[in-house]
Structure formats: structure tokens, C-alpha cells
Amino acid sequence: MGLSAELRRLLSMNIVAQVIYIYIGIFINLYIWEDGKKIFDVALFNMSLFIGWSVGFTLGAHLMTRYSIRLVFALSAFAGLMVFTTLSFLHLDNRLLWIVLIGVFVGLTFGSFYAAHNLSISLSGQVKDLGSYYSYVNIFQQIASVTVPITSALVIQLFGYPGSFLMMFCIVVIMLSLSRLVPNLTLSHVVKEEGEWYKGMAYGKLFRKRSEKWLNGAFFATGLFIQFQNLFVLLFTFHVTENKLLIALLNTAYTLSSFIALYLYRRVRLSENTWMLLGMTFVSSGFLISLAYISPLLVVSNLLSTVGMFYFNITWMTKVFRSVSYLTPMGKLRVLLWRECLICLSRCCMLSALFFLDDIRGPGFIIIVCLTVVCIFGIRFCLGQYERIRAQEAVEVKDQ
Questions:
Q1: What stretches in the chain show pLDDT beneath 70?
Q2: pLDDT of residue 129
Q3: What pLDDT is stored for residue 397 in this prediction?
Q4: Where are the alpha helices (DSSP H) in the chain?
């Protein structure tokens, strides 16, 4: 496979987590959407999710300075068990409170998971391995994107949502068992050398260089654009059909388009920045096509944005981890924590704007689409500024 043993074990955990994430991303959103068909309900669920995500990521990072990463992955799995237990057995009269509760549990699940995962990658993986690692992540994610929706849709048709909740409960148990096999990494020994993580979290102290502030601008814009893409790929599909098997088949079509994108990525030699620009162009085209609000064009919109997100994600994640590769372990924790919370904040800003939408038509939706397209190319501008200023800073250091 070309990866170290540590990265292979992290990849296994990532695959299981992706199965859970894909199921929740499609069918829990659909479960909430079906009762009332309100964008507000879906946006509220996702906002609660990312508030919980921020808390889970912060808690996970803190626990890594005290205990092993295995505990953080186990905590993530326990929160996942709470998600499907609550969905199965807890039904509140206050529907909005129930939506918020589910969202917070989901957020805790994936916030703590990605705290452990991202910090593990930055601590154990070599920068040169990151491109290979994330290409494998994308391959297995695409396979899961085909199999999980179809399998889940068939289970729901045969046994209803409760049957699918039980199936996912069992998969989370597998995730819990895998937490014992991941690398036994910890930052507890670093605390004595570099101090507690929260003592160096002041923005001005942590991000002193001009280049880093431009990179943070790219993070904020990325959160806005990713949240729009993630949510409206689902809502566009739900507007085309609410048949669960057809939704699964449409997701299969989106996944097959990513396989074609992967084939081209491996065969065509282009620079990272060119692939990223290509991805941004595909995503922007998909968003603008959706303004026609014709069902076949909504499917085309999703195909284009899926291919674009594939190219964007591969290059974006490599740039993210390369940007912290020179930092100390505690420095990596502080920077990744700041940036994860920044992305969650920008996601919540986008979701707040969506609270006022009743449908994916009208001037409000057009304004949000146009602002999102501006954000997409704003990411490239911020990254360009970051790379240019960082090169100047490197020259200044050499001259000193």
C-alpha cells in the first residue's frame, strides 16, 4: 500500500468512521427533512452538529495532552452509540430540542474523532506520505459512498429506520473495538516541555506572521463553501426524489463521477494549484447551474460539484498539514484546534443565513449562491497571498 503501519491503522479507523458519516449525512438529514420538508430543520440539525463538533474537537485535543489517542477514539465511538440509542428510543414532544440533541451527539462523535485523527496524522505521518494517504482515503470514501447508501436504503425499505439505526449501532461497536488498535500516541510528555495547550492559544501570540493570517482567511472561506456544498448536494437530491433507493442510486452516480476524477488525477500531471483551481471551477459551475431549478440540472449540478470537491479536498488537506509540518507537537495542536473551530464558526455562519430560506429558489438563494462562488475563489486568492508572503518571510529569515 506504500503507507507506514501507523497510517494504515489510522486509515482503517477512518474507513469505519466514513461509513457512519455517510449514513448520517444522507439518512439522518433525510429523516429530519421528511417531517415538514423545512430547510430550517435541516439547517438547525447541522448547526447543532458543528457546535458539538467544536466542543468535541476541543475536548479531544485536551484529552490527548493527558491520555492516549485511543481514549479519544473510544470517546468518539461512545458518542456515536448515544446518537443511535437516542434516535431509537428517545422521542421528545419538542421536536426542535430533539433535533438539537441529535445534532450535538453527532458533532461530539466527529469532533472528537477528527481531533484524534488529524493530530495523529500531523504527529505520525511524513509530509511526503500525506498525498498518498489522502488519495487512499478518497478511494475508500468513494467505495463507501456507493455501498453505504444502497445498503442503508434497502435496510430501511425492509426494516424501516429502526433497522438501519441498529445496523449503524453495530458498526459503531466495530469502531469502538478498533480504537484499541490505533497508534498509542499522546501529547502528555510534551506538556512538561511546552506547557498546557490553552496557555498559548491567544490569536496574536499564535499567529504572528502575516502569511498565517492569510491562511486563516482561507480556512474561514473554506468553511462557508464546504457547508453550502455539503448541505445542498443533499437538498438538491431530496428535491429530485424522496425515494430512498433512488437517492442511494443518485449518490452512486456522484461517486462514479469521482472515480473518473480519480483516474484523471492519476493519469494527468498537473500542479497542486492547477488541480485546486480546476476543482473550484467545477464546483462553481455546479452551483450556478442549480439556479435553473430543473431536476435534471440539479443532478448535473451535484455531479460537477462532487468532482470539484474531489480535486479540492486532495490538494487542500495536503496544504493544511504541510502548513503545520514545521511546528512542535503542541504547536500543531494549538493551530489545528484554532483552525477547526474557525471552520466550524464559518459553517455556522452559512447555516444561519439558510435559516431564512423557505426554498431553493428566489433572490435569497441566488444571493447565497453568488456569495459562495466568491468565497470559493477567495480561497485561492488567500492561499496565493499566503504562499507569496511566506516565501518572502523565508528569504528574510535567511538574510538575518
A1: 1-3, 122-132, 194-195, 197-198, 200-201, 325-327, 396-400
A2: 63
A3: 61
A4: 5-23, 29-34, 39-64, 69-89, 95-124, 127-178, 188-194, 203-206, 210-240, 244-267, 272-289, 295-323, 329-354, 363-399
* Count of other CB atoms within 10 angstroms of residue 235: 21
Residue 120: predicted pLDDT: 77
| Cell numbers that stand for 362 in this block | 428566489
Residues contacting 172, CB < 8 A, separation 6+: 20, 77, 80, 81, 83, 84
Neighbours of 128 (CB within 10 A): 8
Q: Give yes or no for a contact between 88 and 28, defined as CB atoms under 8 angstroms apart.
A: no
Residue type, 223: G
- What integer pLDDT is reported at residue 107 of this predicted model? 93
Distance (Å, whole) CA 13 – CA 137:
11
pTM, two decimal places: 0.81
Residue 340, C-alpha cell as written in the block? 477547526
**Amino acid letter, 116:** A
* 293 within 8 A of 183, measured Cβ to Cβ: no
Residue among 267, 273, 272, 236 at smallest CA distance from 251: 236
Copy the grid coordinates of residue 142.
Answer: 468513494
